[in-house]
Automatic annotation (TrEMBL):
Record organism: Bacillus yapensis
Keyword terms of this UniProt record: Lipid-binding
GO molecular function, one term: lipid binding
Protein name: DegV family protein
InterPro entries hit by this protein: DegV (IPR003797), DegV_C (IPR043168), DegV_domain_contain (IPR050270)
Domain of life per record: Bacteria
Length: 279
């Protein structure tokens, strides 16, 4: 069975890597007034942070059922099955959209996979799936491996301003108000597919240290890990953090990624995070 791998744009996998592994990408969009931009196609992270200086934060939208159907029909010409790996169903309807479209398309088996997370942690699932598909593995074996990855996957992030999450309905008003009043840097994470507070910490530096300490606890087992640093227009800070962590944790392979337009619309500039998973 020949299997295709699809993910959405919020995985933020570099285009050259998507092309190398034959990962197909369906974009979510950001909307400034009457202007709609497909992220990773019409608008990239660096451009986005410039746009919001004059236009403010946009709204976001998921792919339409028709866009999914068009993609699946195209893939059906060369593949028997497709695994769709999408951002958490608790913050977007993209995963459900893939299921709906899959039921409308013949000649290809559609397997939708809820990453229950987003950004490059979602991307790690897609990369693993693509490597296995390219090696001739079938959908069931690939999904079993993704489920195994999910057991050890962890990610935490913080934002400079909780109001963006509250405005987008990703965090309750009460939590946003309390965080703003106390001027805390709450650590956030995904639980049961939605974003919830993990701990409230007073400063950015202490919040980053707390996340790093949790990675260090897991990595103390000596097992090999992959870790991703996420940043919202904080490239230099991310690079410094990476250098610091690499010196402490030789069994962890680090990469730096970013919060692209759709996710950054809810987190705002200055967000920072760290995620990891066993190799």
């Amino acid at each position: 069975m020949k299997t295709a791998v699809v993910t959405d744009s919020t995985a933020y996998i570099p285009k050259e890597l998507r092309d190398k592994l034959n990962i197909h990408m369906i974009p979510l969009s950001v909307i400034f007034g009457n202007e709609t931009y497909r992220e990773e196609i019409d608008l990239h992270a660096d451009e986005f942070y410039e746009e919001i200086k004059t236009k403010g934060l946009p709204t976001t939208s998921q792919p339409t059922t028709g866009e999914f159907v068009t993609l699946f029909e195209k893939l059906a010409k060369d593949f028997d099955a497709v695994i769709n790996i999408h951002l958490s169903s608790g913050i977007s309807g993209t995963y459900q959209g893939a299921i709906t479209a899959g039921n409308l398309v013949e000649d290809i088996e559609v397997y939708a996979y809820d990453s229950e997370i987003s950004c490059m942690m979602q991307g790690l699932y897609a990369i693993e799936a693509a490597e296995m598909a390219n090696a001739g593995k079938g959908p069931e074996e690939i999904i079993a491996r993704l489920d195994e990855m999910k057991k050890s996957m962890r990610a935490y992030f913080m934002v400079d301003d909780l109001s963006h999450l509250q405005r987008g309905g990703r965090l309750s008003s009460a939590q946003a108000i309390i965080g703003s009043m106390l001027q805390v840097k709450p650590l956030l994470h995904f639980v049961d597919k939605v974003i919830v507070p993990f701990e409230k910490i007073r400063t950015r530096k202490k919040a980053m240290k707390r996340i790093a300490d949790m990675l260090e606890e897991d990595a103390a087992s000596g097992e090999a890990y992959r870790a991703v640093i996420f940043q919202g227009k904080r490239e230099e800070e991310a690079q410094e953090w990476k250098t610091e962590l690499e010196a402490k944790l030789p069994n962890v392979e680090f990469t730096i990624s970013y919060f692209g337009p759709v996710i950054a619309s809810h987190l705002g500039e200055g967000a920072m995070g760290l995620g990891w998973v066993k190799k």
